[in-house]
């Protein structure tokens, strides 16, 4: 942990720092920083605070300082007295982060010889230690949201947390946007009730709307209550450049293969380079490309979440020992972990959202007063613009986080059961407690009551399961679990992370023997959906190797070493995350502002100039729509710049409308920037003649009936439903050892979905599913904002041929593989169901 | 809002595929029933009625509409083929108490299906005892002509056999896509019926459980399409 300060910081005058702390600061030649002392003062006054600071600002020590001081004042328990319970709870999104913080916090605590016991508790903590922790709790417990939920579901939760004074929430900005955040918010509401004097400290990177996070930390009683805020100004300006390649930047694609010689050169010139990409497959490919040209045999390693744990630990260890020159990584390395002496961060592909970029750049040089060094490598021309926009955003310090969603109903159901496992509850009391959690502040009582009914016996209108209920209302009106085994069942299923079905990849030396061979070591895990479409003999990239698929045996994907250097099956390499609203806005602004083009590489600005001459460049709030013939087909291309998810939804809905208008659309493709739809009739002519209008085509009302009827037929909702059903506790989570295979779960979830939709379309789980799909896979909110923004601002260009701006999206046609991102895969699976069969003929 | 499950009309509209079985015509319906034209027998297997309430006893609350939905589909098939005899090929009920848990509507629905017809419940591993207070006869197995009807396929059976139990499913891969559907599995001698209950999953016909049951050169998986049945040869089939 870095706690270094400059002499210009104010002294600790007026603040009552205990002697060991003063001595320690003096011995280090340091002074406490202003924000560290401010946080201490606020905590002393009983206030909760949000600390916003860039990486390297000593955020972690600041967060723990009030606890350490309070524990030091309290002193060791007198012999013969009861040892107090947990004093401070630290919660982070990553297990690894908790472990990392443990190491970093132990150093000053040992140096000051403080009477403080620190321990971690994560999914990896052995059962024996968990038991011991309940009998003999540490002073500071470092843990995760799931573990907090589990602790709160125990009968003795109230006693266990009786002495709790502080909660520290790390990486709050990344926690709050997910269902894990919702689970944590509910847990926090419970802690606030158990310990009314609780002080909560949130640690966060810079965010666009800190007030949301401030509300998140404190109970919402009248609405709008906020924690105090302490903001630390940004450290040294990061030194970020965009790779000015001599090579030609491709029109489209995500590989950035063109840049590898220049990237390799940069690695050679630096001590340690972190090379970030957006997806696993991209990391695989670039890793292989780098080794292909690694003439100096530099130690370059690969790190992503699908690799085997032991392999990942090996890489992490080598990294900490500075034994590596470069590491190619995905978001598994994303959050604030210290990684050796990194002096360069290279980001390949679009940074997709400025705050993600800042987070990653913070990795280089974890010291605030030294400038971080980073190079952005755009993979195509639109990404050049996006990188420039991200770069501007980083300098401006404007960072975006996805808007905080309303608390998810499946998580609520899980929490209600957890609460009942701890102790009987009264509906009125629990409802009052839950609406103090910011994400649930607007939860209607009626919805809450339906959630309780769901937990009790499925919440069906046909109440035929009451006699088998999980929780029952007693004559005094409290709800209690009907059998102790229900608590055990809850504990096995708690948490909000529903893993996609994964298969172990195992090597064999025997080829062409199918899956029935002796398999060797495990290389890691791979998505079942990817393997499903492989035929034996197909080759693909994994862990930096080209592997030959042999077959599947139970939960193993059996592979052999491929002789070929090129993998046959193209791995979808697109961006996993859609571009954020903020970044899209910047790109549109840049596009419309001709003066800013000079900041772009010449080949890109030339491209835009030609576009302006041949067609048009839209204003920042406009939508450009081009129509043109090509081959035997007619194309309609639009440029909303709203990210792939929203575009896919838009395409689905536009196609339906064009079909109704008899334009005979045949297909579509959506990129992060544009959409293209093609058909048999000249849509340009149809627009000219007034047979269709753009205002009509892009009318917001498409999000009404068209959306509903599409959703009804869609495969997307089934997948979302499965996750909701697992989180809410309708279907059991899979457990290693005694698990059903992912496929069987999928089948039954689909069947349940069909029956439920037909017979009870308003069921609470379907409500949760639709909400999830709207915000997640479909990005309806964003599409809606776009449609309202462009109303009356659609610019049509009827062209004789393809425009320069249309080239990238046109190149995507037919290139996108079905193994793609979740949404596209689901969309295509939907089309596949009948098509393959019909196309392959009746008797095959 | 459009129904996700096929409506009764949609179920009825499916086009059956005619198969020659024991020198007689059998219609394989995409809804998952087989109609033996000569004897006017409608065969259906693995209804698993009351599976929902069976799970509820273990506190897993599946939507309690499965029995009604399954019976409505069966009633539509009965109306479509107007059989003289209906044979439920075992596992008609999900557990041995399931028939006792049937609600009034379900009992009425079964009575309507059985009216003026012969209804035969072949016992299965899930329902080894005759159902309680439900119309129809209960048998362990029965034969029509040279064809034996039983629940679990018997590899030692040399004649023609119609059975269920395994819930056959088939998977094909094409153009980088994969389609998995319930199917009839047959080599012309043995016919294994797909499961008909709305909450029943399937077992891939490539699984070891099917080994030795078929003459593979004549084997076809008759996959259930939206409104037709697709016959797929063994070479095209993939395991899971």
UniProtKB/TrEMBL annotation, chain B:
Q: Which PANTHER family match?
A: BLR1149 PROTEIN (PTHR39323:SF1)
Keyword Lipoprotein carried by entry? no
NCBIfam families assigned to the protein according to its UniProt record, in alphabetical order:
P_estr_lig_assc (TIGR04123)
The EC code for this enzyme is 3.1.-.-
Source domain of life is Bacteria
**Ranges of residues in domain Calcineurin-like phosphoesterase:** 40-156
Please give the InterPro entries that the UniProt record associates with this protein: Calcineurin-like_PHP, Metallo-depent_PP-like, PdeM-like, Pesterase_MJ0037-like
Name the source organism. Oricola cellulosilytica
Q: Name one GO molecular function term.
A: ligase activity
Enzyme group, top EC level? Answer: hydrolase
- What is the protein name for this chain? Ligase-associated DNA damage response endonuclease PdeM
Q: Where is the signal peptide?
A: none
* Record keywords, A-Z: Endonuclease, Hydrolase, Ligase, Nuclease
């Amino acid at each position: 942990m870095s706690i270094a300060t400059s002499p210009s910081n104010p002294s600790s005058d007026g603040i009552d720092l205990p002697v060991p702390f003063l001595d320690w600061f003096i011995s280090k030649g340091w002074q406490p920083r202003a924000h560290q002392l401010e946080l201490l003062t606020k905590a002393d006054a009983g206030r909760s605070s949000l600390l916003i600071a860039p990486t390297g600002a000593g955020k972690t020590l600041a967060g723990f300082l009030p606890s350490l001081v309070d524990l030091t004042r309290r002193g060791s328990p007198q012999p013969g007295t009861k040892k107090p319970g947990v004093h401070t709870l630290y919660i982070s999104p990553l297990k690894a982060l908790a472990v990392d913080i443990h190491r970093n916090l132990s150093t000053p605590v040992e140096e000051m010889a403080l009477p403080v016991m620190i321990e971690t508790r994560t999914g990896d903590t052995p059962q024996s230690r968990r038991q011991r922790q309940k009998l003999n709790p540490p002073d500071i417990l470092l843990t995760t949201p799931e573990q907090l939920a589990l602790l709160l579901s125990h009968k003795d939760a109230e006693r266990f947390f009786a002495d709790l004074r502080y909660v520290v929430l790390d990486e709050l900005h990344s926690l709050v946007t997910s269902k894990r955040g919702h689970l944590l918010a509910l847990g926090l509401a419970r802690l606030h009730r158990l310990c009314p004097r609780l002080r909560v400290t949130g640690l966060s990177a810079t965010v666009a709307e800190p007030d949301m996070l401030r509300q998140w930390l404190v109970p919402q009683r009248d609405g709008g209550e906020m924690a105090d805020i302490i903001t630390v100004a940004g450290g040294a300006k990061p030194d970020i450049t965009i790779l000015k390649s001599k090579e030609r930047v491709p029109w489209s694609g995500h590989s950035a293969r063109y840049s590898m010689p220049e990237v390799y050169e940069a690695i050679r010139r630096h001590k340690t380079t972190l090379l970030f990409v957006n997806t696993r497959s991209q990391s695989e490919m670039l890793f292989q490309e780098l080794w292909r040209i690694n003439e100096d045999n530099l130690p370059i390693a690969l790190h992503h979440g699908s690799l085997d744990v032991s392999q990942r630990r090996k890489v992490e260890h080598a990294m900490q020992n500075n034994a590596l020159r470069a590491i190619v990584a995905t978001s598994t390395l994303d959050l604030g972990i210290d990684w050796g002496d990194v002096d360069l961060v290279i980001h390949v592909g679009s940074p997709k959202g400025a705050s993600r970029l800042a987070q990653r750049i913070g990795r280089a040089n974890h010291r605030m007063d030294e400038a971080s060094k980073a190079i952005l490598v755009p993979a195509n021309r639109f990404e050049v613009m996006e990188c420039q926009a991200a770069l501007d955003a980083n300098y401006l310090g404007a960072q975006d986080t996805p808007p905080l969603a309303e608390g998810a109903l499946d998580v609520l159901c899980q929490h209600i059961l957890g609460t009942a496992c701890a102790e009987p509850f009264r509906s009125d009391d629990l409802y009052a407690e839950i609406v103090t959690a910011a994400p649930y502040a607007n939860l209607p009582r009626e919805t809450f009551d339906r959630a309780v009914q769901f937990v009790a016996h499925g919440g069906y209108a046909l109440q035929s399961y009451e006699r088998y209920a999980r929780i029952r209302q007693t004559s005094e009106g409290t709800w209690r679990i009907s059998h102790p085994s229900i608590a055990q069942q809850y504990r096995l299923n708690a948490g909000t992370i529903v893993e996609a079905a994964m298969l172990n990849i195992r090597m064999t030396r025997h080829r062409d023997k199918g899956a029935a061979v002796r398999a060797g070591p495990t290389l890691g895990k791979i998505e079942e959906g990817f393997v499903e479409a492989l035929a034996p003999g197909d080759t693909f990239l994994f862990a930096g190797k080209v592997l030959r698929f042999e077959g599947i045996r139970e939960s193993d994907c059996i592979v052999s070493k491929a002789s070929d250097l090129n993998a046959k099956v193209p791995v979808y390499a697109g961006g996993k995350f859609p571009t954020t609203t903020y970044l899209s806005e910047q790109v549109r602004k840049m596009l419309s502002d001709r003066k800013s083009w000079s900041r772009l590489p010449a080949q890109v600005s030339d491209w835009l100039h030609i576009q302006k001459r041949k067609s048009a460049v839209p204003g920042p709030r406009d939508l450009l729509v081009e129509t043109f013939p090509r081959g035997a087909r007619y194309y309609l291309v639009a440029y909303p710049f709203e990210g792939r998810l929203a575009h896919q939804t838009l395409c689905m809905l536009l196609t339906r409308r064009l079909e109704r208008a008899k334009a005979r659309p045949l297909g579509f493709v959506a990129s992060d920037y544009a959409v293209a739809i093609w058909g048999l009739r000249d849509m340009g002519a149809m627009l000219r003649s007034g047979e269709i209008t753009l205002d009509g085509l892009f009318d917001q009302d498409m999000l009404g009936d068209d959306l509903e009827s599409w959703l009804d037929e869609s495969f997307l909702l089934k997948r979302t439903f499965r996750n909701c059903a697992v989180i809410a506790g309708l279907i059991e989570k899979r457990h290693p050892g005694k698990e059903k295979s992912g496929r069987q779960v999928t089948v039954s979830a689909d069947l349940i979905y069909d029956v439920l939709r037909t017979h009870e379309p308003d069921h609470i789980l379907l409500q949760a599913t639709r909400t999830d799909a709207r915000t997640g896979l479909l990005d309806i909110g964003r599409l809606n904002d776009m449609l309202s923004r462009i109303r009356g601002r659609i610019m049509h260009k009827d062209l004789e041929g393809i425009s320069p701006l249309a080239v990238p999206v046109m190149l995507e046609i037919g290139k996108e593989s079905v193994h793609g991102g979740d949404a596209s895969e689901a969309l295509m699976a939907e089309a596949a169901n009948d098509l393959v069969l019909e196309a392959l003929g009746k008797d095959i | 809002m459009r129904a996700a499950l096929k409506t009764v009309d949609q179920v009825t509209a499916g086009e059956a595929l005619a198969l020659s079985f024991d020198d007689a015509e059998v219609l394989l319906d995409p809804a998952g029933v087989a109609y033996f034209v000569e004897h006017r027998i409608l065969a259906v297997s693995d209804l698993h009625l009351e599976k929902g309430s069976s799970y509820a006893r273990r506190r897993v609350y599946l939507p309690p509409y499965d029995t009604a939905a399954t019976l409505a589909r069966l009633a539509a098939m009965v109306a479509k083929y107007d059989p003289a005899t209906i044979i439920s090929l075992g596992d008609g009920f999900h557990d041995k108490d399931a028939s006792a848990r049937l609600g009034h509507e379900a009992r009425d629905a079964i009575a309507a299906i059985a009216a003026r017809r012969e209804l035969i419940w072949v016992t299965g591993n899930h329902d080894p005892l005759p159902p309680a207070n439900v119309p129809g006869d209960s048998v362990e197995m029965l034969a029509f002509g040279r064809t034996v009807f039983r629940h679990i396929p018997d590899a030692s059976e040399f004649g023609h056999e119609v059975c269920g139990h395994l819930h056959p499913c088939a998977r094909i891969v094409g153009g980088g896509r994969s389609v998995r559907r319930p199917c009839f599995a047959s080599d012309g001698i043995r016919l294994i019926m797909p499961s008909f209950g709305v909450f029943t999953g399937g077992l891939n016909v490539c699984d070891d459980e099917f080994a030795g049951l078929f003459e593979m050169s004549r084997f076809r998986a008759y996959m259930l399409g939206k409104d037709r049945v697709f016959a797929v040869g063994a070479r095209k089939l993939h395991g899971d």
